[in-house]
Amino acid sequence: xxxxxxxxxxxxxxxxxxxxxxxxxxxxxxxxxxxxxxxxxxxxxxxxxxxxxxxxxxxxxxxxxxxxxxxxxxxxxxxxxxxxxxxxxxxxxxxxxxxxxxxxxxxxxxxxxxxxxxxxxxxxxx
Length: 126
Hints:
By secondary structure, the chain is mainly α. The protein has helices at 11-18, 22-31, 49-64, 69-83, 97-125; strands spanning 9-10, 38-40, 44-47.
């Protein structure tokens, strides 16, 4: 039986759905302040649809795109600040994260090339 996309999920359900262990989800709650599932009696966590979207984004950043926790946190806070009022709207109407990454890729590429050149120079001097 699958739940409606707007239904709340327990930590166990979300864990099974995304193949992420519950202790990892609890760790991410500590590391990403914007991830705050509802806690009911006995500290039982219930993830709202926006929490599920946030967990999916965090998982993608960390496990698919290779971000560190610090980098993913910075990425999420910068994109939340850029979107402003759009962050309070449902995720379906928000622009995809990948599109904004493409906009920033030119700047990142220039920075990476600068770092590469500095490293190359340092290695040649050593």
